[in-house]
Design brief:
The protein is mainly α. The chain is built from 19 helices and 5 strands. The chain is 62% helix and 7% strand. Bound molecules: zinc ion.
Length: 415
């Protein structure tokens, strides 16, 4: 009886949450990443255009009412739902405060919006990795220059990009379908765009359909094919959204999953699972074999170099927290854009053009950057703590699918 009552309260508050997200979207063009709930709610948000101050009050009231529901009375799934709504609403409140002019440090912001704080690394940490990388890269010049020169032999020629991506997407779909039952009608389309601060984007449209956009402003290296196919597609964002839709929206009628606010804890789960999904779908040796036999030839590259390329790439990936440090210092006002770009070139080995593009990503998405690498680490630790280690692929996929099919927030995975 009590649980039935709580369920109707949660359903009502979930509706308030969706409407609040749509209301924030009127003030922040990047906020509503996906919405496939009632069209009338969207129209209503557009016509009423509620003021930020009012949204804030409504969010506070909704959180207060949510707190009157005692989690102890709920079963596990509803407890997760309750925790999810609470954290998502708190993050919405924080985003409204930021939009209203409040300032936060990088770490305060990431905690408020994404329910997590990224570890800090000193320059020595990255210098040691650069030293290791230096041994692989012949020639003279800085590690960044030598790395750039090395990588220039692994660019996918423009006219071959689409064919290479199509091959990577087919293989990622095949591998994911062996492990996860996907909706029969799932599909996505790929579109090539320019002038964006990101390199790829998944726009979920509902009804198991996504639009995946690929930015072609900068050269596309061969490693992007599988990264993009798995991160944006299988078993990444496209699969995550399709499973949430099937299990939570269609089966349980949980309306809150018809909307996806970008600046919220859900993004850490989304980016973390999308990044971790790459190695789920392609354990190291299997990836190298597929690259060597299929993708390198499709790109007109020498397949015999795939092993060497990915050994160096694996060392390069250890630098992935360097981007967070640049963003943290830049957004905290400690360094200028030029200094941030220089840091990215030196420690994240981004060519100057790419480094500049990345600082624009910092402007637009701010502490969102932690969702990729910290998210990946949190997901990995969570799966492993539940027995989903790389040597037990069956178990790992089961835990991964469960994670993609239930309401989760970062603190719920680490706590
Ligand atoms: Zn992503």
């Amino acid at each position: 009886m009590k649980q039935t009552h709580s369920l109707s309260v949660l359903n009502r508050l979930a509706e308030s949450y969706v409407k609040l997200v749509l209301a924030v979207g009127q003030h922040d063009a990047d906020y509503v990443d996906a919405f496939y709930g009632p069209e009338a709610w969207k129209t209503e948000a557009g016509t009423s255009k509620i003021a930020l101050e009012t949204i804030k009050k409504k969010a506070v009231a909704t959180v207060a009412e949510l707190r009157t529901v005692a989690p102890a009375r709920l079963d596990e799934t509803l407890r997760l739902r309750h925790q999810y709504l609470l954290r998502q609403l708190q993050a919405l409140h924080a985003r409204v405060e930021l939009l209203s002019g409040r300032t936060m440090t990088f770490d305060e912001e990431s905690h408020a919006l994404y329910d997590a704080v990224a570890p800090a690394y000193a320059e020595d940490h990255f210098k040691a990795i650069l030293q290791e990388l230096s041994g692989f890269l012949p020639g003279s010049g800085t590690v960044a220059e030598r790395y750039e020169k090395f990588k220039s032999a692994f660019i996918i020629p423009g006219e071959k990009v689409d064919a290479v991506f199509a091959a990577a997407i087919n293989e990622s779909r095949r591998r994911t379908k062996e492990r996860i039952l996907l909706p029969d009608n799932e599909s996505f389309v790929v579109e090539y765009v320019t002038g964006k601060s990101w390199s790829g984007y998944n726009w979920y449209k509902g009804n198991s359909h996504s639009l995946i956009q690929v930015n072609t402003d900068l050269p596309i290296y061969i490693d992007r094919a599988i990264d993009l196919a798995s991160h944006e597609g299988y078993p990444g964002h496209h699969v995550y959204n399709a499973l949430l839709e099937r299990h939570l929206v269609r089966e349980k009628k949980w309306i809150e999953f018809t909307v996806y606010p970008l600046f919220s804890p859900q993004s850490l789960i989304a980016e973390g699972t999308a990044n971790y999904g790459i190695e789920m779908a392609y354990p190291e040796n299997e990836r190298i074999a597929f690259e060597r036999d299929v993708l390198f030839p499709a790109a007109g590259l020498d397949g015999s170099k795939a092993g060497h390329y990915y050994r160096i790439h694996a060392t390069f990936l250890k630098l992935n927290y360097a981007g967070n440090e640049a963003a943290r210092k830049y957004l905290n006002g400690e360094i200028s854009r030029e200094e941030a770009a220089r840091w990215l070139t030196e420690y994240a080995l981004m060519a100057p053009g790419r480094a500049l593009q990345r600082t624009k990503f910092f402007d637009q998405y701010r502490s969102y950057v932690i969702n990729y690498n910290l998210g990946q680490d949190i997901v990995k630790r969570y799966l492993e703590s539940r027995g989903g280690t790389p040597d037990k692929p069956e178990k790992r996929w089961r835990e991964f699918e469960a994670l993609l099919s239930t309401p989760r927030v970062p603190s719920g995975l680490t706590g």
